[in-house]
Design goal:
transmembrane, Beta-Lactamase, PAS-like_dom_sf, transferase, 5 domains, 25 helices, alpha+beta
Length: 797
Amino acid sequence: MNGVWRSFPFQTMQLSPGALFAIGLFAALWLLAGLWAIGRGVAMQRRSAFIAGQTDRLASLVEASPQLPVIVRPDWRIEAAERLSRWLGLAQGPRNFDELRGIDAGLDHAGHEQLRQAILGAQRGAKPFTLSLKPLGSARTIIVHGAAAPQAVGGAGSVLLWLSDATEGQHALAQARRERDEAMAAFEALSGLIEAAPFPMWFREADMRLALVNAAYVRAVEATSAATVIEEGVELCEPVAGISATDAAEAARTAGAAQQRTVPVTIEGERRIMRVVDVPLAAEGGRVFGIAGYAIDIQELESERGAHRRFVRTQRELLDRLSAAVAQFGPDQGLVFANQPFRRLFALSAEDVSEGRSFARSLDLWREGGRTPEVRDYPEWRQAHVDWFAKPDASEEDWLLRDGTHLHVVAQPTPDGGLLLIAEDRTEQVQLAGARDTLLRVRTATFDNLFEAIAVFAPDGRLHLWNQRFRRLWNIDEHILAGHPRVDTLMGGLADRLAKPSQISVMQEVIRAATLERTQRVGEIRFADGRHFDFASIPLPDGNALLIMLDITASRKMEGALRERNEALEAADKVKTAFLSRMSYELRTPLTSIGGFGEMLQSGYAGELPVAAKAYIDAIMDSVAVLGRQIDNVLDLAQGEAGTLAVERAPVDVRALLDKALAEAKPFAAAEKIELAGQLSTTLGTIEGDAPRLARLVAGLLDNAIRFTAPARRNGGRVLLHADGDDKGIEVVVSDNGPGMPDAVAAITRGTQAGTQSGGIGLALARQLVAAHGGTMEVLSEKGQGTLVRVSLPRGG
């Protein structure tokens, strides 16, 4: 344009004002039109950019959407994104509907035809549809939602399809269905289990009312049905201590955790102990929507627990009575129990036991008290003993303590992880074992130095032990005896050593009887050299048999002389007995005359006597009486020794006889300053016997008691006559507090006639008189404590 203006210079052109105005107006309009065109272009450019951006965003959203839009034109052309080919497994994006079907990919014939018919229906009737298709060769599941496309999208006759990949959803749905089926099956099984449970179970809703009970609950409350129980609200548990079943359930809901209690419950008319548990059931939000409960019968359990407690108590009482020391440590290695021997052995108090001190600490304290053995490495020893708890088997040890005590310790792990410790004091056994070894050596030395020949045979007849005298007696080589030959083999080669070889069979039979029949046999054999031997076989407690052979050659030689001497002694004894009888008779005759004349003088046949003469006559009469009793005693003693003592049998009033003996002895006791007392029972009655001899028996016992007590106890001496009786017989006891008569007691116990002091003849005669009446006499005497004589006589003599 500038070129145009240059070709027409202004100074040569003459324009009018109107033309200039028109040109100016045109130029202004042209400028405005240009400006408007520029603004319009800029606006259109911006709009195009916005639309392009929106298109890109929409395309991105469509691409990112889980659903894929597909437009099917009326001519069956397809407009879709590339995802459609990936979902269907096609090599390239389909351009028409028929390309959706393939051989190894895409839709199969049935699916392709089903989709075609659905699209035709949508085109004709605008009817939406939903299909589920599975491409060939793929596990993918595609859900197709179809409907007539909007006019602005595809035009008339077009169908808009929305495809979504439902593979994961289908899997999740299938899994959810399986889980639902499994949950339903588990619920039904659980319901059946709850119903079949042998113990009551129930469920409470949030308002604590029963909503579900099982058959066991119905039986327990003796109801007709579960509906009746729920309708009437029948509770299984009665209120205990003011707490009802609903209160316990409310407490479980408040605590948010299971609550249990032990209450008595009446089930089918029987009182039982039940453990009732209430469990709150909460949803995911924590809201409790109900309380489940169950009750377990623990009657047997409580009974067993009680029995177990009684057993433990009895066991511990028994352990306290054992001589072995026993302690029990629990699973935590703490001391649970220790019996009395264990406490004494390890110096434990009741507080130490109740403290539950650990085993390791106990070992430390025992070591300080010298109750563990001295070891080089104590920490190692201590750990090794703590490891006893983990060992499967028992451990045994011998502990030698500082004070010389020998303990045998047994550690037995218990099933609950604890330890049972048993300590046995074997100090005495160890000492006895040492003593036994010493005794064995002493026995061997003793065997070899005994005067008798000794051999021990085992139960099978083999020679077990022997001494050197046995070997020398039979002249047997040591190596033969060391082979432990059988008795038949051994004795078979020794027959020639006997005067009568056939007697060797007697030796064998005696040994066989001791080993097999366990009977004792004795015998006598003579050797060929003239020696005589007594032998005996004795069964031993261990099953062996002891053979003893004693050389009696010298005694045989003395036997003849002794026999002759015995005959002479018997003849002398007969002469002595005859002499005593004769002397008793010869003494009694003049004594009778003296007594008779003395009685005459006392009676006044010779006139009145002076006082002094009367005293002399009384002394003579007393001496006559004493001498007469002594003569009778000597005569009875002689007859008793000769076996000719005869007693008369007549009823004797025992009470009268004893009263008379006391009355006659009291003057003598008073003269000796001895207290004489009698304790006579009313049940004495009568016995069959010789009254004079029984009277002398009691008088002699009282006389001896007074005589022995008087010298030792001038003041305070006491003699007691005690008598009692029953249906079988009587018992007379004479006791004193004198010096005692041990020698006389020994003589009477041996059954001899000898005695010490003046009581010997009296006691010997008393024993014979008691024996002649069929009774027994017992003498007890202790030096410085007195003497007691007990005489027992039968009723019938």
